[in-house]
């Protein structure tokens, strides 16, 4: 069992028409009962001593399974209803969890790209079993069973904001011209007057996601730079040290003793070094792009970029995305343009056309359209 402890590298396009706000009891981690009855927990907590939302950020086999205290009407979010063996659902929803803490009601965490079922699903996971008779205090209505769920998202797309940083306030409809939560703990924010706040909340969420991506990416560039300056393991093409090939390999998961970034998959900075070295420390968009010298005063500063972002590794269970075929050398401007700039598709298309044969060798055979979806 693993709790979501930090923003992991991930990004999914947010559909502003598929957003729902869900108010839940204030907790620190939402990875199980925390030994207290939270304030503002509501009558259910008072009656049973627990709430179904207490597992909302528990990592369970690569996913998080969430619950709303009073249920969500999927059709109030979208008419794009699908169905599987568990029932009717909608996909690609941004679920914004809120709770009332020291700073009032604020955004507490969120699911990006979530699936929401029209009806609650019974859970068979042992990780979600709870027996309230084990509580050492209070007389509660007995319960011994598994906690169900009604929403699912990938573990890497579930983001819990640290308790001390929950400060983005959420409006109360009664005090804000009917914009915000009413008495019901679900706010669909689907009226025209809700749009300004919804846009502000999405901008705040995207900033959190980008900050997490930046931290992980900066760590990779720092590790690569250290290898280059120290002239570590890999030699050049004439070398006596074997190079990393393009052949497909399986991804390797990190364990708790391997401090290899916040990602749950291992990545080897030597592969990124090999990629920028093979490009002779030039930008692969245009070798004439201006850059500066590294601290050794000898080599141009360029950055390693994974063409298929590593955030998608869960979708490639048999193929490692940390492969030299998938790593390109970019100047800082082009690297930032791809991540944050308008019309980044032009750059991605150029890189794709130069790499598609190597990507195929690495087991990453896909069209340009498929690659763009993964950005």
| Total separate domains | 2
- The oligomeric state is single chain
Mean residue pLDDT: 87
Largest sheet, in brief, is: 8 strands, mixed
Strand content: 15-25%
Shape: elongated
Backbone structural class? alpha+beta
Instruction: Give the distance, in angstroms, between the N- and C-terminal Cα atoms.
Output: 29 Å
Q: List the uncertain runs.
A: 1-11, 233-240, 256-262
Taking all Cα atoms into account, the compactness measure Rg is: 23 Å
Number of strand segments: 14
Into which percent range does the helicity of residues fall?
A: 10-25%
Number of helical elements: 6
Instruction: List SSEs in N-to-C order.
Output: EEHEEEEEEEEEEHHEEHHH
Brief descriptors of the model:
two-stranded antiparallel ribbon, about 20% helix, alpha+beta, eight-stranded mixed beta sheet, about 20% strand, disordered N terminus, 2 domains, elongated, about 375 residues, 14 strands
């Amino acid at each position: 069992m693993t709790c979501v402890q930090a923003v992991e590298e991930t990004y999914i396009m947010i559909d502003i028409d598929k957003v729902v706000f869900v108010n839940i009891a204030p907790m620190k981690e939402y990875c199980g009962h925390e030994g207290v009855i939270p304030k503002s927990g509501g009558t259910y907590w008072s009656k049973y001593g627990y709430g179904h939302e207490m597992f909302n950020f528990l990592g369970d086999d690569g996913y998080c399974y969430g619950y709303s205290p009073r249920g969500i009407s999927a059709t109030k979010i979208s008419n794009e209803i699908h169905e599987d063996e568990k029932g009717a659902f909608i996909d690609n929803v941004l679920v914004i969890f809120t709770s009332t803490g020291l700073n009032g009601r604020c955004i507490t965490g969120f699911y990006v790209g979530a699936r929401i079922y029209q009806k609650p699903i019974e859970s068979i996971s042992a990780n979600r079993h709870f027996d309230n008779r084990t509580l050492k205090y209070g007389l509660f209505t007995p319960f011994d069973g598994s906690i169900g769920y009604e929403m699912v998202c990938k573990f890497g797309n579930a983001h819990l904001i640290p308790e001390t940083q929950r400060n983005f306030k959420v409006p109360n409809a009664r005090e804000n011209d009917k914009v915000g939560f009413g008495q019901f703990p679900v706010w669909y924010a689907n009226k025209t007057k809700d749009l300004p706040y919804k846009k502000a909340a999405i901008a705040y969420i995207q900033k959190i996601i980008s900050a997490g991506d930046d931290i992980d990416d900066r760590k990779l560039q720092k590790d690569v730079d250290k290898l280059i300056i120290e002239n570590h393991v890999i030699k050049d093409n004439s070398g006596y040290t074997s190079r990393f090939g393009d052949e497909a390999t399986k991804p390797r998961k990190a364990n708790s003793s391997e401090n290899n970034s916040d990602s749950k998959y291992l990545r080897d900075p030597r592969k990124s070094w090999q990629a920028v070295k093979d490009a002779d420390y030039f930008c692969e968009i245009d070798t004439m792009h201006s850059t500066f010298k590294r601290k050794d005063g000898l080599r141009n500063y360029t950055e390693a970029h994974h063409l298929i972002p590593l955030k998608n590794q869960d979708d490639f269970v048999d193929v490692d995305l940390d492969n030299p075929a998938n790593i390109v050398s970019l100047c800082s401007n082009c690297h930032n343009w791809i991540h944050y700039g308008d019309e980044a598709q032009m750059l991605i298309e150029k890189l794709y056309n130069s790499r598609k044969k190597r990507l195929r060798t690495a087991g990453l055979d896909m069209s340009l359209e498929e690659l763009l979806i993964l950005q």
